[in-house]
UniProtKB/TrEMBL annotation:
Coiled coil: none annotated. The gene is Cabcoco1. It comes from Ptilorrhoa leucosticta. InterPro entries: CLAMP. The lineage of its organism: Eukaryota, Metazoa, Chordata, Craniata, Vertebrata. This is CBCO1 protein. Pfam families: CLAMP (PF14769).
Amino acid sequence: KMEEFLNLTQLKTSLKEAILLDYYTAGFWWAKEMNFSLIQLSGFMDLLNFALENLSDKHMTLGDNLKELGRAMSGTGETDSEERDDLNLFSIEQAKAIIDYLVISLFKHYKTYEYLFHSRREEHVISNE
């Protein structure tokens, strides 16, 4: 279902698409394990997307992305989704857990994600076998 939602069409041959599917799927299941409500789950997925788009589309440095994430979570910044009061969306403990999750899942591996999105590399053809 996540593959369909993200419109990943070359999952079997694209390392980039496979990594994106893993990133969003792992985030989704983490949020489910945190027992987030449907609205909180949506807000969390927006934050995952926001941080990843800052890196991939806006070429933000790690420091700038962390600042933007802080603004988005404090309600002073906006994600690309509908504007809402993120201060009331998550408790302080949940917000801390989200930050910890983003540090572990994205920010600790920032250079790797930068390489994935911004380096030129040859495409190798791999057979289905």
